[in-house]
Design goal:
two-stranded antiparallel ribbon, 17 helices, globular, Rossmann fold, 2 domains
């Protein structure tokens, strides 16, 4: 059972209570807690609060004449610090993706000292949901700061600021999170700490792009952890003329079909990893060559490829031909179990729901974990931390995605002719600048959306020397996009990260 006591010390160097001088709003508060982790008592402090973000005032004015900047918004954060440790302890900044997601899932289901009991991560947890001590909290090796970007959680823009121009775009978003990190390090005196950044999904793009921008303002990361990352949208968004997503998704489709026992006996006699690797080898050779031929592919060869593709997906040869050999993940998700009138989740192909086609609004691989996490997060804030606000905590702001300016994050340096949002250029630059920065990329074996194949291909395309590439860690876990909702996978992930942090 966690134990918490409120702490409100005026000048302890970490928290100044309601005096308005530390750049943290008056709602900021700090308490001390303890949990059990790996059989030991872990004592820590937790702080909830806001840090301001400023932008240059292009319109001038009296305030601009004084500072040449105006307050544009406030970012809400929750910070955990192990007690009896100094300010040279590793410090990790953590965020989810979306765009439009708060740090809820990584906080409550993965890294925080308190977590939600979710069982196997496939079925919705049995009500009533409960909080429990997280034996796999990353607080064992690093202090933690969970960040909610503007428009998520309690983070809000100022009323006179246009958030679409100031925050809601690939470039502006990266800049705002970098500004938050700089100010946090300044206010808390943590520049001597080894620094880590962790991002999930779109947060993978954000984290990859941030590494170089942080270097530009004098901040060097010791490590970067990308979870189910969207590093390069060209590998994830299928369009006419861009067949790469079909190739990358196929090994995960085969893994999902294997999981549901929809493949032949030859495949079912294999383990999941063997199925994945065989499908990946076929996709990168025979399948790639066929798609690259486009409409010059002979009909006999096209049918032969369709037969082989059917063996990996359990779809019929005729429907694969109707799809011109290109199977969208939503089509696969909606048709793999159609005889049972079930569809599988695109974020976790192990999860199923009733329906004849895939329905994003009812995708079981998203809401089944989010609802318990949100409920218990609010319980953690209000009951255990005593932090109560009337404003709605936006754990998933669906209004942001359609407003998001992805084009400022395109890999085309001139932005002529458009391009795909991607962080490979900036991530490569940061790794070349400092070959000692560590990189860990984690994927779920059943994540169709940000699939393992795309993540591995993106890492292989980084423009870095082989001496740097061979040190990059690629790991896959038994689960989907949020594989850490599987407690067994989370424990393995924690073990791998402990070793990652310990490496020099």
């Amino acid at each position: 059972m966690t134990k918490c006591t409120e702490k409100c010390t005026e000048n302890d160097g970490d928290h100044i209570c309601n005096d308005g001088n530390d750049g943290v709003s008056e709602e900021s508060r700090q308490i001390e807690c303890s949990v059990m982790s790996k059989g030991e008592t872990l004592r820590y402090s937790v702080e909830t609060g806001f840090l301001p973000l400023y932008v240059r005032d292009e319109k001038g004015g009296e305030k601009a004449a004084e500072k040449n900047e105006i307050k544009a918004g406030e970012i809400f954060f929750i910070a955990y610090r192990k007690l009896s440790s100094d300010k040279t302890r590793p410090l990790t900044f953590i965020f989810n993706g979306g765009p439009g997601s708060s740090a809820l899932m990584l906080h409550m289901d993965c890294f925080g000292p308190r977590t939600v009991a979710l069982g196997n991560g496939i079925d919705i947890a049995e009500f009533p949901w409960r909080l429990e001590d997280n034996a796999d909290t990353l607080l064992t090796v690093s202090d933690l700061v969970f960040i909610d970007p503007i428009g998520t959680g309690y983070s809000r823009p100022e009323s006179l600021i246009d958030p679409e121009k100031t925050f809601w775009g690939a470039e502006a978003d990266v800049k705002s999170i970098c500004s938050f990190i700089r100010l946090y390090l300044t206010r808390k005196g943590r520049f001597a700490s080894p620094l880590y950044v962790m991002g999930e999904s779109y947060g993978g793009f954000r984290g990859g792009a941030m590494a170089a921008q942080l270097q530009d303002i004098g901040i060097q990361l010791s490590g970067l952890v990308l979870i189910s990352p969207a590093l390069n949208y060209q590998d994830l968004v299928s369009l006419i003329g861009n067949d790469r997503p079909y190739i990358h998704a196929l090994p995960t489709m085969a893994s999902v079909a294997w999981y549901h026992k929809k493949l032949s006996d030859r495949f079912l006699s294999m383990d999941q990893e063997t199925v994945f690797q065989e499908a990946k080898a076929w996709a990168g050779s025979r399948y790639l060559q066929a798609l690259w031929k486009g409409n010059t592919l002979e009909e006999d060869e096209k049918r032969a490829v369709a037969v082989e593709l059917a063996s990996y997906t359990n779809l019929s040869v005729e429907e694969i031909l109707q799809l011109n050999l290109r199977v969208p993940i939503e089509y696969f998700a909606g048709n793999l179990l159609r005889e049972k009138q079930l569809f599988v989740g695109v974020y976790d192909g192990r999860c199923t729901a009733s329906g004849k086609t895939h329905n994003y609004e009812e995708d079981p691989s998203t809401f089944r974990a989010q609802i318990p996490a949100f409920s218990m997060f609010m319980n953690l804030l209000t009951e255990e931390m005593g932090y109560v606000r009337d404003e709605e905590y936006l754990f998933s702001n669906k209004d942001l995605y359609p407003k998001w300016n992805f084009f400022t994050g395109t890999s085309n340096p001139t932005n002529r002719g458009g391009g795909f949002t991607g962080a490979l250029g900036s991530l490569s630059r940061s790794l070349r600048r400092n070959g000692q920065m560590k990189l860990f990329v984690a994927s779920g074996n059943y994540d169709l959306r940000c699939n393992r194949g795309a993540a591995e291909f993106a890492v292989d395309q980084l423009d870095v020397p082989f001496s740097i590439r061979k040190k990059i860690r690629l790991r896959a876990y038994e689960g989907g996009h949020m594989f850490y909702t599987n407690s067994v996978a989370r424990a393995k992930f924690h073990s791998d990260l402990v070793a990652f942090y310990a490496e020099t």
